[in-house]
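Fold this sequence, please.
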Amino acid sequence: MDIKINAHSVVVFDLDDTLYNEIDFLKSAYRHISKHLETKNWKPLYSVMLSIYRSEGNVFKFLVKKYNIDLKVLIEMYRNHIPDIYLFDGVLEVINSIKSNKGKLGIITDGRVKTQSAKLKALGIENLFDKVVISEALGTEKPNEANYKTIETSLAGSEYYYIADNLIKDFVTPNSLGWETIGLIDNGLNIHGNAHQHYSKANMPNHFILSYKELKITR
């Protein structure tokens, strides 16, 4: 898929399951917690935590009971650890090509400022974007129009692109605003796996891609 980018183009990305797999953040947090609770032999606990999660059980309830630890402490450890996560193949090349063509770059992501900012830093891309919109700071979550209008107000352009993954909330608003929307298809590891419930015209992106290697940035 070719995308023509120039100084009047604004390309906006979602974060979780769009630039990296969110399940890797969860695994990173579980490792952090298990190492805190079982400092000498953490891997068995990590294995159990993953099994409970995959069985759709309540991991934190299990930990609270087993270790007599406060739930709030676990939540803080989960949200505020330094994540061990990695960009999808081709993401950095696409971002650099957009910048080389003088295009502007943005992020629209739901979540907490500290957590989402730590993810961007861990991915090594925190300084590459012209505007980052995080729902906690704005006080509204997608698909609220305010999240997208903040980008339009901050980054002037004649054409806007939004690359994201979640049919539930990512595309309905930018579609209505006339943005070009691109959906990254679930690689089988996405946290939210119920996209099939939202295959309406309003929720669908204009285009689908399997990976960032399908995107070719041109002038």
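Residues 2-20+86-218 form a domain with the Rossmann fold fold (CATH 3.40.50.1000). The chain has nine helices and eight strands.
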